[in-house]
What we know:
The structure holds two protein chains of two kinds. Chain A has twelve helices and eleven strands. Chain A has helices spanning 14-24, 40-44, 71-75, 100-104, 143-150, 153-156, 170-176, 190-206, 223-230, 243-250, 255-258, 260-279, and strands at residues 2-6, 28-32, 47-61, 81-84, 87-90, 110-125, 128-135, 160-163, 181-186, 210-217, 235-240. In chain A, helix 5 (143-150) packs parallel to helix 7. Chain A is elongated. The mean pLDDT of chain A is 92. Chain B is built from nine helices and 13 strands. The two termini of chain B are 22 Å apart.
Amino acid sequence: MKIALLSGKGGTGKTFVSVNMAFVAEKAMYIDCDVEEPNGHLFLKPQIEAVEEVKVAMPKIDHEKCTGCRKCVEFCRFNALAYVNNAVKVFEDVCHSCGGCMLVCPENAIVEKDKTIGKIEKGRSGEVSVKTGILNMGEASGVPIVKQLIENVSIEEALSIIDAPPGSACIVMEAIKDVDYCVLVAEPTIFGTQNLSMVHELVKLFDIPYGVVLNKCLDDENPAEKYCEENEIHVIGKVMYSHDLALLSSQGEIVSRVDSSYYAKFKTMLERIFEEVHHGTTSRA
Amino acid sequence: MGQLLVLSGKGGTGKTTVASALIQLSKVKHFADCDVDAPNLDLVMHQTVDPIITDYSGLPKAFIHEEQCIECGQCQSQCRFDAISHDQVKKTYVVDLNACEGCGVCELVCPVGAVHLEPIVDGHLQLYKSERVFSTAQLKMGSGTSGMLVTKVKRQMLEHGVESEWAIIDGSPGIGCPVIASISGVDYVLIVAEPSLSGISDMERIVTTASRFGVKTFICVNKFDVNIEYTDKIEAYAKAKGLDFVGRIPYDSQAVKVINQGKTIVEIDCASGRAVQGIYENIKKVIDNGGNL
């Protein structure tokens, strides 16, 4: 089974919930798709066993063959090619690797070379196998890393927990497209509620079963909880804000490891997800 | 006009809370929300006027005309983004608009001219213009062209000429293309960091990104009392990197209450609001002196 954690935004506790669920699952794979700021490894502290580079194809101009016709420059919609000082120049950081320039070149003067945009670290943390995607700084898109991260996921482990990137942009869609269940993690503020409503739209659009974990709850009224009530969304768990919890998390501790009440809480959440998926009783579009 | 951009390396650190408080305190006449994926600033910046809304179109997307398609499959095999699949019922190829990046390769390779690129609406720009100019936008779900929209949000803020010395911009999270679009052209960056292992990791990544642009960078810590040891580490890091450390904001449950009433934290007397007041004064000092704290 594949479960993805979403939040509409960073900082709501997506990684906090993900690593705890992976820990209490006993045997699981944790996949960190937040490639701009992967943080799961700071908690799980995996022993790295392998590193895979993520490469994309970049055009390479054979200046001997190039006649300066500029067909490639005209074709490129990303403005990744320019004709400067009588030569075609490639701006790699805006190139989307579509391969179009190579196709339009009448002289076959463009070939492709690999460019590394990031890496995937694979390791183990007890019973949890961990995959972390890391985007190199200055690269525009982490989508190719997420694609490589979730390739063949289902056959590798019985349970995969995907820590999705924040937001609801194309990279998030890539991370959740084949999952069985989405957990939406929400903060108790009007900011958090607006973000929750965005990922709620997203999971409805993708027709993926989902539930909400309310995080950092205070005793006051919780607009995110109210949103769930109004929209009949299953709340699969609720975590109260506490200074001790915040401190443990800030130190990179997995709270379920040090506190049995949290262990039980996350175990219940996970069981509830299993039940909902197996009985088809989830919130759905 | 000088521009101060608030960044965090990641969402949820309190970027919007801090930015909105600074906008209130400084009374700047221009401000913008560049978090086009999940804009929140509008929730605490009450506007007296209705926004002027304009459609935003990023790159056009591919459409395949069923009646012309001869099902040769060229478009599918050449598409690098797995955006094209075969529809056996309709006897044609179809484009997944979420995956299509609008590169135009399918149009190029189609032997019968059945593919065309057409603009689609990827989101909306909103401009609130009264005595203050507030520029913001909302990207449609799943659109990948947020960097371009960020650039438009900033341009829209600058083009609507109310005279003003300064502008404050709530930036986008992360280190990717929207952030790069946010940073380009600004004079100062304020990074809101969180005192945790992950917060420090995020902060280091955004500092590296900002330093590539040679932008003068301030650092403050939000929820500093969650972990004082790490707050000290962040302050030491800032000093070691030659960045101005401008203040510490405590965790404050009052802040949650104020925000939930749609107000900024400097509109009532609370610990977090007072801390941001101090941060504002520190930043002003640096800017006024054109030097260090």
